[in-house]
Amino acid sequence: MKALTFKRYGKSPDIGLADIPRPTLKADELLVQVHAAGLNPIDNMIPTGMFKPVLHFQLPATLGSDLAGIVTEVGSSVTRFKPGDAVFASIFDLGTGAIADFAVVPECAAALKPANLSFVQAASIPMVGLTSWQALKERINLHPGQKVFIPAGSGGIGTFAIQLAKHLGAKVGTTTSTGNLELVRALGADEVVDYKTQEFETVLRDYDAVLGTVRGDAIEKSMSILRPGSQIVSLIGPLDAAFARAKRLNVFLTFVFGLMSRKIMRLAKRRSLKYSFLFVHPNGSQLAEIGKLLEAQQIQPVIDRIFPFEEAKDALEYLAQGRSKGKVVIQM
């Protein structure tokens, strides 16, 4: 079967389509014929080796985490799915990849595809949906009437997180460029800052939470818009010791991640804020709940471009430009 693989870590990872054996199943797994695979920024980061200490692949490795497709086989202990079922899933951090003709999906990571979504639409959801759910609903415990700042509102995470936050009853502030102001307002954003003409920290006030999605000094700047007792949940780092302990990493990496986050922790404590790093984990039950919101059309997929499988490498390069409105998806 065909798959998009990388052969080594570093500046020359040799990314390209390759013929690899069709995977074999364990008792608790599904074999899914992939109809579409959604891309995420981390797909470009993994081959650089940036996450090598915490994400483990056997090289050459198949890229991609998000997929939608048809179950073709099930393991002996699988009870919730059968061949012919249309499913979607994230297989992030499971050592396998989604940009392939077939992918192995643990039963616990899969959910039935919302009937009203195409495979392309469904494949755009898993990582951004689960990340938003785990950050806003679980970690922050966002309540009606609270205010959450979700920067980069027109991106993959932003377009979903804004809609979920509004579903949870929150007020949403975001940033975007001039050309995307109407898009993020249509998604439900209440306060929109055009970052080309304004600094968000001079405009926004009295927020209860920040979802960190932008690299650089954006998280430090966002502290000034928060009330004491508020939370910052970062998706882009710095990694912290709590994350290392949750991943059961060794003492050295726990120490290193503690050092990496020391400055942001100190600044947060000074302002009576709580900082934490979030690494999304696959969860089929949560994805099924997200699927209900999609079926009820309370959340809409936002897709920027669709690439054919043969142009999967080009799709990654396009995503790396950082200009997409919503998600980039590969269609098999």
Automatic annotation (TrEMBL):
Molecular-function GO terms, alphabetical: oxidoreductase activity
Keyword Oxidoreductase among record annotations: yes
Keywords linked to the UniProt accession: Oxidoreductase
Name listed for the protein in its UniProt record: NADP-dependent oxidoreductase
Enzyme category, top tier: oxidoreductase
EC number of this enzyme: 1.-.-.-
Pfam family, one: ADH_zinc_N_2
Boundaries of every Enoyl reductase (ER) domain copy: 10-330
Oxidoreductase found in the keyword field: yes
